[in-house]
């Protein structure tokens, strides 16, 4: 389990800097190691869905940091498993927060608060880097002189990604519709998390396919 408070960083690389006050990534993994571990994620999810985020957070951060080095299959596998974990977490939180007037154990709040923030952070980061790569390829293609037809985002995103993008939006909305502020004391969700999620949503809305 995570013993330090997770704080949404300004940059991903900030998580790779040691800190005694907040959570930081403990391990730096190679591409080969990450590829092998991603193949085991689904089994790990079924074996221990509650501890999945804490166990594999560093792996996901390393994957995101080296995003360009991985093939489509590896990236989609990692995203889909994480989305499934988020759905399981939603059900757990829905049950835990069912009674809005019930006072929760502080240790339990700490665990679920960290789990929630870490999961949301990873989902947002993966979605964000995916979208950025698609946009970069689209812009680069349109810079090429002599191109008869202007390239669009559709030309560079995989057939599977639009469905995963929608899945991301649905999951995040579901999580924030829960009374998750109960996990904080005082019951105010930290602005770093709100701002981070909001910025990712705005970037997605810039894509006409999502905005429709």
UniProtKB/TrEMBL annotation:
One of its GO terms (biological process) is meiotic chromosome condensation. GO terms for molecular function: histone binding. GO terms for cellular component: condensed chromosome, centromeric region; condensin complex. It comes from the Eukaryota. Residues 78-211 form the Condensin complex subunit 1 N-terminal domain. This is Condensin complex subunit 1 N-terminal domain-containing protein. It holds the Pfam family Cnd1_N.
